[in-house]
Design brief:
The protein contains 17 helices and 20 strands. The protein is α/β, with parallel strands linked by helices. α1 crosses α6 and α12 crosses α15.
């Protein structure tokens, strides 16, 4: 048995429920104490006046891509194309492929993507994938274009830039054509990044968003080798295959629409800075009705990517229909749930639908002259990332990063949630921590095992140098230790 003491343990069962010590045996918390107990025959572990919370849980990541791209080129801080080319030329190949991510053409001097010909000069024979920060567009070189079996032929004047379905075709080819060693290496890289940022569990999507579950079975078979808990989503629309895989859920990031940045998020009214464009609904009503009703009937929890109000409305009406036919506590998920009206939120609450949201989207793209305001205008921007309105309606909402789109960092997400650009949608510190602990555990039906520091729960803990509930700079708090099932994964002095 281990007695962890000399810390402030925030249970997260309710506000101000604090313990001073916990007793752990066989990976579980077997007792909690308000005062230091006098116990014999236990290993005593002094936590040096730290602040302890349930291990963070990120409920929406592309961990394979996040781990894979972490082994490639991070273009987040480049200021011009010359820097892009320099970084790419120095990067290590992975299974004879080059990966680059976090590129934002709006933040570099040239205000454009690199071209196929420019990439060919560096890599004439090695396939290159360079993804935009939102993941909804990319650039490839000639070597990649030749390898991919395109459903629709590329235009003769193709310059390397892809979006919509061809963006998906390209990225899926790169992800599907890796050997097992590269795949496992990517997940181990993801696990290490997760641990360093205080996570003990991560929800991750595996699949091509259509019929192929890619390496789902490989990861499921090797799940015990990872130091972090991966909660898997077969990111497919093949219900029979999801059931064959033994999954309780389906989806994760199967797309109802795209993104604001790429003008592919489906809106009810046109984009403010592109009045000819309203985005795109990726699938028909008939498709979604058949898919959602069957998956619901089979007892699968469904998670669907919806950014724009038109996409959310499309999915919501079939979630509602499924619940009207057979009421179930199945916690279907609207992923992102970005642009909503009061009426839409009322319907989500009435239907018992859940949401997984990314507070860092607001931090990065909201605010005066931000991406949201440019694309949507001021009025619609105020209707994005409505955490306060959602929580007040008692909708189950959990926090995620959409990593690799934003960094895998729960502290940054918590900080963003309490400082949303729209003051009326900000939430309390306790509510923000709930997004990544108690609520996240409920989303995956793990509330009896994870999400709070409580008797009989798994001893998954993140130990911080400073207190989230009093620190001004939450995102910069140092993570001192991470404990999974009572064992240290990392510890710093």
């Amino acid at each position: 048995m281990k007695l962890f003491y000399n810390a402030k343990f925030y249970s997260m069962e309710m506000e101000n429920k604090i313990f001073r010590a916990i007793l752990v045996q066989d990976g579980k918390i077997i007792e909690t104490y308000h005062e230091l107990p006098q116990l014999k025959n236990v290993e005593k572990i002094d936590l040096d006046n730290a602040f302890v919370y349930p291990g963070f849980i990120d409920t929406h990541t592309h961990s394979f891509e996040g781990g894979l791209y972490s082994l490639g080129a991070d273009l987040k801080n480049v200021s011009n194309l010359e820097e892009v080319f320099t970084i790419l030329s120095q990067i290590e190949k992975l299974d004879n492929k080059i990966f680059a991510y976090q590129f934002d053409e709006n933040l570099i001097a040239e205000k454009r993507f690199p071209t196929k010909d420019e990439l060919d000069k560096i890599f004439p024979e090695t396939p290159v994938l360079l993804r935009r920060i939102d993941g909804h567009s990319c650039v490839i070189n000639s070597a990649a274009a030749k390898e991919i079996n395109w459903k629709e032929k590329l235009p003769t004047n193709f310059n390397g830039y892809l979006r919509k379905k061809q963006n998906g075709e390209a990225s899926n080819w790169f992800h599907h054509n890796l050997d097992d060693e590269a795949i496992l290496r990517s997940y181990h890289a993801a696990a290490e990044i997760g641990i360093k940022t205080g996570h003990t569990a991560i929800h991750t999507m595996i699949g091509n968003a259509y019929a192929q579950d890619l390496h789902f079975q490989l990861i499921k078979n090797n799940i015990a080798q990872f130091p972090i808990e991966f909660i898997l989503y077969p990111q497919i629309t093949n219900i029979s295959r999801a059931l064959e895989l033994g999954s309780p859920r389906i989806g994760g990031c199967i797309l109802a629409d795209g993104s604001f940045g790429s003008y592919t998020a489906a809106l009810k009214k046109p984009y403010s800075d592109n009045p000819q464009e309203k985005g795109i609904l990726y699938k028909t009503d008939e498709f979604w009705e058949n898919f959602i009703l069957e998956a619901h009937e089979k007892g699968l929890q469904i998670a669907i990517h919806c950014i724009g109000d038109a996409a959310i409305s499309q999915i919501l009406k079939f979630y509602e229909k499924a619940q009207m036919q057979t009421q179930k506590d199945i916690r279907h998920i609207i992923v992102h749930n970005e642009l909503t009206s009061d009426k839409m939120l009322d319907r989500i609450a009435a239907a018992g639908i859940s949401a997984t949201m990314q507070p860092m989207f607001d931090r990065l793209w909201a605010g005066k002259n931000g991406l949201y305001e440019k694309r949507l205008g001021k009025e619609r921007t105020l209707r994005t990332n409505r955490l306060r309105s959602i929580i007040d309606r008692k909708i189950l909402v959990a926090g995620g990063s959409d990593w690799y789109i934003t960094e895998l960092n729960a502290l940054a997400g918590i900080d963003a949630a309490i400082r949303l650009h729209n003051p009326e949608e900000r939430i309390s510190r306790f509510e923000a921590v709930e997004l990544y602990t108690k609520n996240a555990a409920r989303l995956s039906f793990n509330e009896k095992r994870l999400g709070t520091i409580s008797k009989d729960k798994q001893a998954d803990l993140v130990i911080l140098e400073k207190d989230i509930f009093s620190s001004e700079n939450i995102k910069d708090i140092q993570i001192k230790r991470v404990i999974k099932k009572g064992e240290f994964l990392i510890q710093t002095k």
